Structures are given as C-alpha cells and as structure tokens.
Automatic annotation (TrEMBL):
The lineage of its organism: Eukaryota, Viridiplantae, Streptophyta, Embryophyta, Tracheophyta. This is Protein kinase domain-containing protein. The keyword Transmembrane applies. InterPro entries: DNA_repair-toleration (IPR053211), Kinase-like_dom_sf (IPR011009), Leu-rich_rpt (IPR001611), Leu-rich_rpt_typical-subtyp (IPR003591), LRR_dom_sf (IPR032675), LRR_N_plant-typ (IPR013210), Prot_kinase_dom (IPR000719), Ser-Thr/Tyr_kinase_cat_dom (IPR001245). One of its GO terms (cellular component) is membrane. GO terms for molecular function: ATP binding; protein kinase activity. The chain crosses the membrane at residues 629-654. Residues 1-29 form the signal peptide. One of its GO terms (biological process) is defense response to fungus. Keywords: Leucine-rich repeat, Membrane, Repeat, Signal, Transmembrane, Transmembrane helix.
Length: 959
C-alpha cells in the first residue's frame, strides 16, 4: 500500500514539474509575442529596436532587461525618438517591474489595462504626447513611481487617486489637468514626491496633505490655486522642498511652516500673500533658498535671519517691506544672491555686507536707502551683478569696486554719489552694462585710460563730469552711449566712427563745439542721435543721410548753420527730427520726416517751407528780387557755369524718380503687371521678365546683371491695400531685416523681390548651432522687432514670426524676411492660421505688437530646446508653452535643453534659464502680460553675455 502511495506521489511531482516547465515555456513565448506586438505599434526612426527579432533571445534585445528566470523585468527605451501608439500589450507582461518610455514622441491615450500589470513598480511615460484622461486609481500592489509629466493629458485628477496607495513618486506636472486636487490623495500615505505643477488646477490646496507624513517634496506651482496656504502643511516634518509659486494664494504665511525643520527650499513667489514673515520661519536652519518675492508682504525683515546660516539665496523683492536691512545678513557666509529691490526699506546698507558673504548678485534698488556704499561689498571676489539704483546713497564709489574684476553689470544711477571715477574703475574687464547716471560725480573722464573691452551700454548722463571726451572707451562693442547733461567741452572725437555696433548716441546738454564729424556716418547701426543743447557749429554733414537706420535726430539748440541737406529728407528710416534754435536758412526739405514736422522742431531758424504747410509754421519760400544789374549779371554767369552740371543732375534725378515710381509694364507672356522698385540700383539691373522667369520656374535666387535676388510669389488674393503696405515695407532699412527691392502685382497674383542673403533659414540652421550662435540670433531678431514696432511709423507687425522667416547669414546675423499678406499694420485687422502668433488671434482680435512678441517667445523656446509647435509630441500649439513652463519651473536643464548644447550648459546654465524665463513671459496667455519689443531687446542685450541667475524680465533685478 505504501509503495502504491509512493508511486502516486512521484507521478504527481513529475506532473507538477512538467506543468511548471510547460507554463514557463508558454510564458516566454507569450512575452516574445507581446514584445513584438509592442514593436509593431511604434515608429522607430533611429533603429533602436533593430535587434527585436524572434531569432534572438529577447533578453539580449536593446532596452530589455530580464530577471534570473529570463522573464522581462525592465523595459528601458527613454529618449529613442519613438512615436506612434503605446500598445496595451506592454502591460500584459506578467513579470515586468519597470517601464521607462520617457522623452519620446508617443501619442494617443494611455492604455486602459494599465492597472492589470500587477508586478509593476516603476512607470515613466513623461515627455511624450499622450492625450486623453489620467488612468483611474487602482490597487497596483507594488507601484512606487508614476511619472506622466509633460504630456497633454486632459481632464480631472481621478477621485479614486488614493487607490495608488503604495506610491512614493507621483508626477502629473506639465499637462492640461483641470479641477481641484481630490482629498483622497491623502490615502497615499507612502508618497514622498508630489508634483502637479504647470496645469490648470483650481480651488484650495487640500488640508488633507498634512496627513501625508512622508512627503519630502511638494510642487504645485504654475496653477490657479486660491485661498490660503494650509497650516497642516506644517505637520510634514520630512519636507525639504515646498513650491507653491505663481498661483493666487492669499492670506498670511502660516507660522506652522516653522515646524518644517528639514525644509531647504521654500518658494512662494508671485502670489497675493500679505502680512509679515512669520518669525518661526527663521528656525529653519537647513534653509538654502528662500523666495517670497512678488507678493504683498509687509513689516520688517528681522535680525533673526542670522539663524539661517545655510542660506544661499534670499529673494524678497517686489513687496512692501519697511525698516532697515538687517545687519544679521552680513553673518550668512553662504549667501550668494540677495535681492530686496522694490520695497520701502530705509537706512544704510549694512557696512559689512559682502565681507563674510559669498555674494554674486546684490540688488537693493528702488528703496529709500541712504549712506555710503560699503567697501566690503565685493570681498568675495565673485560679485558680478550690483544693482543699487533709485535710492539716496551718498559718498564716493568705493575704491574696492575698482578692483572687483568679477563685475559684469553695474547700475548705480539716480543716487547722490559724488567724487571722481578712479583710474582702475575704468579698466574693469568684464563689465558690459554700466549706468551711473543721475548722480553728482565729477572730474575729467578723458584723463584716465578706458579699457573696458566687454562694454556694451554706458550711461554717464546727468552728472558733473567735465573736460574733453575720450577718443575711446576700450570697447568696440558699445551699443548705447549716453553722456548727456554734463560739462563736456571740445569737439566730438572723430574716433567715434570706430564704434561700429553703436545704436544710440546721446551727447545732449554739454558744451561741445566745433563741427559735427563727418565720420559719424560710418556708424551704420545708429538709430538715435541726440547732439542737442551744445555749441556745435558749421553745417550738417551731407553724409548723415547715408545712415541706413537713423530714426531719431536731435540737433536743436546749437549754432549750426547753412541749409538742410535735401537728402536728409530721403532717409526712409528717419521718423523724428528736431533742428530748432540754430542758424539754418533756406528751404526746409519737403520729403520724409520733414513733411509733417512740428513747428517746435524748426523754430529759431531762418527757414521757409511750402506754401501749403501749416504744421511747421514756417513762412512760404519766395523768390528773392534783386534790383541791382550787377547782381543780375553775376547770377547769370554763375548760372551758366553750373547749368550743365545742374541739368545733368536733374536728368539723373528725374530718371531715378521715374524708375522708382509705380509702373505698368506688359509682359510678353503674362499680361499687364504693375511694378514698384524701392532701390534705384535694382530698377536698373532687374527687369520684369527676369522676375517672372524666376518666379514661375523656381523659388530661389538668380544672378541677373550682377545682382542676386530672391523671389517670392504671393497668394492670388492680393489685398486692396497692397501698394500702401508694401511701400512701408520697401522703405525699411535695418541690419536685421532683409531689404525688399521691388514688388509686382497683376490679376494673377503678386511677387516680392528681395535682396539675396547668403545663408539658411533658421529652421534649417538651428540643429547645428552652438549656444553662442543662438544667443546672437535671439538678440538680432529682438532688435529687428524693436525697430519695426518702435521706430517705424506706423508700427509694422510681422504677423507670422516663424523660423522660416529668419535667415542666418554668413556672419551668424539673423535677418528677418517680411512679406505679405502676413504683414498688417496698426489699423489693420486680420486672422492668420499659424502656430507663431498669439492665441488671441483665433478670436479675430487682429495682429498686434503682442502677437509678434508671442511668436518671438516661441522662437526663443525653439532656440533653447530644439522643439517647435509643429512637433508631434505637442499636439496643439499651446502645448509647447505649457511644456516649457513646466520645464522651466522644474529647473532640470538637462531634460529640456537641445542635446547639442548640453556641453555648453555647464557654463551657461543661468543664461539658458534666464532666456527661457523671457520666452515664457513673451508667451503669456494674456497679451497685456507680455513685454514690449523694446524691453525684450534691452533685456536680451543685457544678460546674454552675463552669468545671471535666471530671473528674466519679470523677476530680473535689472528692471
């Protein structure tokens, strides 16, 4: 009997072993089939799945990791540029514990069988293009990480989200989630990292978060939460990072936050918080970065701040703080960034500030500070940004600053500083922005050597400087120079012609004499020239009319004489002219900026104007009658001598005008055309047949009579305002805008003829561009926008500011190519179907300056990330902005910067982050919240060569 039982038992064991082996073999076959099914649902442009073939064991496939029993345990295919749908078969793999498909281009909804993967511990689908709702909460017993960030997932957070009870990491940031945070989230008691930032969530932050005792990081920024900060958050003693920025939170900061003894990062900026800083916060001795800026906080900054000995960044700007700057700040040895600007602080700057700190950025501007600038301010040797403007500071600029070789940006304007500039101060090697205007500084600046090779912006105006002007400031990069309202005398140095990058020169209100140097016309980029209120004499140099982008010219209150050069009225870019209170005589030019000149701009001369001119207030010009016979004969003789020359000039002038006028020309093949040239050289070297041959046969350029041109055909529906609008475009002359040479129109359509620019458009060139080249492109486009918006009358709006409209020439200069019909003007209304305009255009609100700024913001995002609104992973065009906002707020630079620039990111992280901040402000959903073109250009010019902290326009100290 025992023998029978033994045999029966052995048979059972053998059967069980065979069954297990059979099941395992079947399971392996099933896993193979599931993986191959997953492969067929995806596109693989990089060939990352090339070895996913049945003839090879899947344990050796790229991106597949097996366990000891040769089952699929992990799938790791991050950043492989995979697209298509995510097959639900991936969640049928019975033993898979980790799935990482982040940073691809997968789309569609997350499969509904997500919760059936019972072995799953780690799931990362971030940075794709998934849509649809979030997966419902489920009791997946081992799931610890769920990262679905940076997609386009819609809808609400499921009410049963608490069923993911074993989660440690939950990241839904950078999606389009709406509604409020379900209270059931508190059931995830093991959660350590909670990120819901950059969505459209509303309502109050649930108090139930206080039950989640293991939370280490909370990131709820860039939503629309309202109400107060829950006091219960103060019970999360494991928390080291709390970020609630950019919401509508109100009330006071709870004192309970002082219980968060492990807190290192507290970010509450851009809310509506009121009241004082709770004293309990100064018990948080592990605090590294504290940012409460852009709120309505008040009261004094207490001396208790000395307890935060690990503090590196303190930002309390744009609040209502009063009282003195606490001396206790001087004891914080790790402090690098201190920004208290735009408050109501008074008293003196602590005399030992910087002595024991490690300051890199100090901004105390726009307060009521008095006393002297401390000598210790640059003791660290790392200070690169010093911003103290708009206070009541006195005394001399500290000698120690003259030895602060790390300085890059210095703004001390609008104080009461006195004394002279030390010789060492004018030799600071890295300073690119220096503004010490509006003080009582004195002495001669030409007696010391200026050697500031990085200098781009120099403002010494409204001081008491005297002596002659120096021949050079040691920099060929100067773009803006303002030396007005001082006591400078002597002549304008001829060497100023070497300032080839100069865009603005202001010498108003000095005692300069002599003639205007003819060499100034060599500064081809000057937009604004102000020499008013001096003692200049002689005539206006004729060469001034050769300055291609001159828009503002003020020569008033001098001793200039002679006639106004007629060609000055032909400078297309010139908008405002003031020549009042000089000794000019003769005719006022009747073209260009002189056509409707105001009487206040010509008064105090001996000029005459047209008979029908009522705006200038000048008497009409009359022929002078000479009764003397000798004068008559002398005039005749002089007339005979110049008659031939004059006649020749008249013929040339008439011929040129005739060539430049709108012509009707008949083509042998295409019927009647109207053609308008905007450049005399083009009218002589290009014929209609040449244009039509190019336009019909191909789009490109041709060399015709030694003239290279680019031809672009327009749509058939040419607007009635074609000639009015195109005339404005044809007159544009700016180094960052491609010239339009001619325009043609017929019943069949229109053609624009451009100068040919050797290079590629930005969409083609961007992939191989370094960080330095991209910076230069961004600055160039911003300058073009500033000119079009601020210097043209009426303002010109680009409409579609896309990469294909930007040409990168051989010098890496960005050249913007304007065209119709996407160009409209101030009074125009229209709709453009393109991703590179503001979202308000879809509501038929018309093109505006702010819609151009939105398009420029998208270009900046593309320059930084390499991604554009048309990429598949973003879906709708707004998604790239949502994605960028999340990336910026997360500050994980390596996850969003263009891969080719990752090697540059180590040394340029702050610049990249700050440029992204500018991009996000430019792409604000509300047009009124976007900056204007002049502010954008100024900001980019200011920080691209600095090591700024990434605060941009809204949050930058250099307001």
């Amino acid at each position: 009997m025992a023998s029978i039982r033994s045999k029966s038992c052995n048979k059972s064991i053998m059967f069980l072993i065979v069954f297990v082996l059979f099941y395992m073999q079947q399971c392996k076959c099933s896993e193979l089939e599931l993986l191959l099914s997953m492969k067929t649902s995806m596109n693989d442009p990089l060939g990352s799945l090339h070895d996913w073939i049945p003839s090879q064991s899947f344990c050796h496939w790229n991106g597949v990791v097996c366990d000891d029993l040769s089952h699929v345990a992990k799938i790791e295919l991050s950043g492989k540029n995979l697209s298509g749908k995510l097959s639900e078969t991936i969640f049928n793999l019975p033993y898979v514990e980790s799935v990482d498909l982040s940073n691809n281009q997968l789309s569609g909804e997350i499969p509904g069988n997500f919760s059936s993967c019972l072995a799953l511990k780690f799931l990362n689908l971030s940075n794709n293009n998934f849509t649809g709702p979030l997966p419902q909460g489920s009791r997946i017993p081992f799931l610890e990480t769920l990262d679905l960030s940076n997609n386009m997932i819609l809808g609400k957070i499921p009410e049963n989200i608490g069923l993911f009870s074993r989660l440690k990491v939950l990241d839904f940031g950078g999606n389009v989630l709406v509604g409020s945070i379900p209270k059931s989230i508190a059931n995830i008691s093991s959660l350590e990292f909670l990120t819901l930032a950059s969505n459209q969530l509303i309502g109050e932050i649930p108090r139930e978060l206080g039950l989640m005792k293991k939370l280490k990081l909370i990131y709820l920024g860039y939503n629309n939460f309202s109400g107060g900060i829950p006091e219960e958050i103060g019970e999360l003693t494991s928390l080291y990072h709390l970020d609630l920025v950019y919401n509508n939170l109100t009330g006071e900061i709870p004192s309970s936050l002082g219980n968060l003894t492990n807190l290192q990062y507290l970010f509450l900026y851009i809310n509506k918080l009121t009241g004082p800083i709770p004293r309990s916060l100064f018990n948080l001795k592990k605090m590294v970065s504290l940012d409460l800026s852009d709120n309505f906080l008040s009261g004094e900054i207490p001396e208790l701040i000395s307890q935060l000995q690990n503090l590196e960044v303190l930002q309390l700007f744009a609040n209502n703080f009063t009282g003195r700057i606490p001396n206790a700040l001087t004891s914080l040895s790790h402090l690098q960034v201190l920004q208290l600007w735009n408050n109501k602080l008074s008293g003196e700057i602590p005399k030992d500030i910087g002595k024991y700190n490690n300051l890199t950025i100090l901004d105390l501007s726009t307060n009521n500070l008095t006393g002297k600038i401390p000598q210790t301010i640059c003791y660290s040797g790392h200070l690169f940004k010093l911003i103290l403007f708009s206070n009541s500071l006195q005394g001399e600029i500290p000698l120690s600053l003259s030895h602060c070789k790390s300085l890059q940006r210095v703004r001390l304007q609008n104080n009461q500083l006195t004394g002279e500039l030390s010789p060492e101060f004018t030799k600071l090697p890295l300073v690119y922005f220096l503004d010490i205007s509006g003080n009582n500084l004195l002495g001669s600046i030409s007696e010391r050597k200026w050697d500031m090779p990085a200098l781009q912006m120099l403002n010494l105006s409204r001081n008491r400087f005297s002596g002659t002007l120096p021949d050079s400031f040691g920099s060929k990069n100067l773009e803006n120079m303002d030396l007005s309202e001082n006591g400078f005398y002597g002549t304008i140095p001829e060497n100023f012609w070497q300032l080839s990058e100069l865009m603005e020169l202001k010498l108003r209100g000095n005692k300069l004499s002599g003639e205007m140097p003819d060499e100034l016309s060599s500064c081809k980029k000057i937009v604004s020239l102000d020499l008013s209120d001096n003692q200049l004499s002689g005539q206006i140099p004729i060469s001034l009319s050769e300055m291609p982008v001159l828009s503002f010219l003020d020569l008033s209150m001098n001793q200039l004489s002679g006639e106004i050069p007629p060609n000055l009225g032909k400078v297309e870019s010139l908008v405002l002219v003031n020549i009042s209170h000089n000794h000019f005589h003769g005719n006022l030019p009747s073209t260009g900026a002189f056509l409707a000149i105001n009487s206040s701009a010509v008064v105090g001369n001996q000029l005459c104007g047209r008979g029908d001119d009522i705006t200038s207030g000048l008497p009409p010009c009359k022929s002078l009658k000479k009764s003397s016979i000798w004068w008559f004969f002398l005039t005749c003789l002089l007339g005979i001598l110049v008659l031939l020359v004059f006649s020749a000039l008249v013929v040339v002038f008439i011929q040129r005008r005739r060539e430049m006028k709108l012509k009707k020309v008949e083509s042998t093949q295409d019927g009647n055309w109207e053609i308008q040239f905007f450049e005399a050289k083009a009218s002589k070297s290009i014929t209609l047949d040449d244009i039509l041959r190019i336009g019909v046969s191909y789009k490109g350029f041709s060399e015709i009579c030694n003239t290279q041109i680019f031809v672009k055909q327009l749509n058939l529906n040419i607007p009635t305002s074609f000639w009015t609008n195109i005339q404005e475009l044809g007159n544009i002359r700016h180094p960052n805008v491609v010239k339009i040479l001619a325009a043609c129109k017929s019943e069949k359509g229109g053609i624009l003829v451009y100068e040919y620019v050797e290079g590629k458009n930005l969409s083609e060139a961007i992939r191989v561009m370094s960080w330095e080249r991209r910076q230069k492109v961004a600055v160039g486009i911003s300058r073009a926008l500033k000119y079009l918006h601020c210097s043209c009358s009426p303002s010109i709006f680009v409409g579609e500011l896309s990469p294909r409209k930007v040409i990168i020439d051989g010098k890496d200069e960005a050249r913007l190519r304007l065209s119709l019909p996407t160009i409209v003007f101030t009074t125009s209304k229209g709709f453009i179907s393109t991703a590179y305009v503001g979202p308000e255009i879809a509501e038929y609100k018309g093109i505006s300056e702010k819609s151009d700024i939105y398009g420029f913001g998208l270009l900046l995002i593309e320059l930084l990330t390499g991604r554009n609104p048309a990429d598949a992973e973003f879906g709708k065009r707004e998604s790239i902005v949502d994605w960028a906002r999340y990336c910026y707020s997360e500050c994980h630079l390596e996850t969003w910067v263009e891969p080719i620039m990752k090697s540059d990111a180590m040394n340029n992280k702050n610049k990249m982050v700050e440029m992204m901040n500018v991009a996000l402000q430019c792409t604000a959903s509300e047009p009124a919240a976007r900056p204007c073109a002049s502010d954008v250009a100024k900001t980019l010019d200011s920080f691209v060569r600095s090591n700024s902290c990434g605060l941009g326009l809204k949050r930058c100290s250099s307001v």
